[in-house]
Amino acid sequence: MTKKLLELDGIHTYYGEAHVLQGVSITVGEGEVVTLIGRNGAGKTTTLRSIMGIPRPRRGRVLLRGADLTALPTHEIARRGVAWVPEERRILPNLTVRENLRLGRLGTRDNGTHEIDEALGLFPRLRERIEHLGRHLSGGEQQMLAIARALVASPSVMLVDEPTEGLAPLLVQSLTQILAAINRRGTTILLVEQTLEVALALSHRLYVMDQGRIQFEGTPEDVRHAPSVQQRFLGV
Ligand SMILES: Nc1ncnc2c1ncn2[C@@H]1O[C@H](COP(=O)(O)OP(=O)(O)OP(=O)(O)O)[C@@H](O)[C@H]1O
Ligand SMILES: [Mg+2]
Prior knowledge:
The longest helix is centred in the last third of the chain and has 16 residues, at 169-184. Helix content is 36%, strand content 27%. It has helices at 44-52, 74-79, 97-103, 113-122, 124-128, 139-151, 169-184, 196-202, 220-224, 227-234, and strands at residues 4-15, 18-29, 33-37, 59-64, 67-68, 82-85, 157-161, 188-192, 205-210, 213-218. Helix 3 runs parallel beside helix 6 (139-151). The mean pLDDT is 95. It is built from ten helices and ten strands. By secondary structure, the chain is of the alpha/beta class. The chain has a domain at 1-81 and 159-167 and 189-236: P-loop containing nucleotide triphosphate hydrolases (Rossmann fold). It has a six-stranded mixed beta sheet, with helices on both faces. The protein has a four-stranded antiparallel beta sheet with strand order 2-1-4-5, covered by helices on one side. The structure holds adenosine-5'-triphosphate (ATP) and magnesium ion.
């Protein structure tokens, strides 16, 4: 692995009394795509949420380039370069594509004309629809907008939760290629992805989660050659 960028060190996260994450440790190296896979309810989304501090882990630490993020407010975690693309996308329906992208630059010094133009280079479909309202976009276009909006903040690491969920196969393929291109251009990605083939194609390394714990860690090759892991934790 290259230099450590993001590190989760034994985090425990609760929803009320429910002890959901039970000592999760994950490392993401500079420039990597690392993917969390695992069944529904395994704790994948909660892991991404814990990095953003909603909810904050009760034990353990989250480090970005060695700096402790665990006690920081969510907006400060974002300001330090962690961009979160949640499962439910959360684009603003009554703003245009361009306005949604500008929101990705909130809290930065300029309006990000250059960054927005670069992001649109990856998403030609969004460029075509730049003056359309969020609510007039298809599900796939909304997902692209959510990713593009995270990208315009020039994050150190993007946390992307199930980007291909509910998309038609052709769109899944094109989104996979776009995520690979984003990574090649230098953005580190921590991904949650249910489609095993997509996860294997994109990742440098993967972590398999179950019941709030990491059960297996390895390269795509390792996962391919571990049918027992696939059967036990992925239901493949
Ligand atoms: N807001 C919440 N309040 C209470 N419990 C929650 C909450 N969100 C998730 N949980 C519980 O925490 C556990 C982990 O959920 P999480 O959403 O992290 O799983 P996941 O791996 O992302 O699943 P999926 O593949 O369905 O998205 C589950 O048992 C879930 O029911
Ligand atoms: Mg989830």
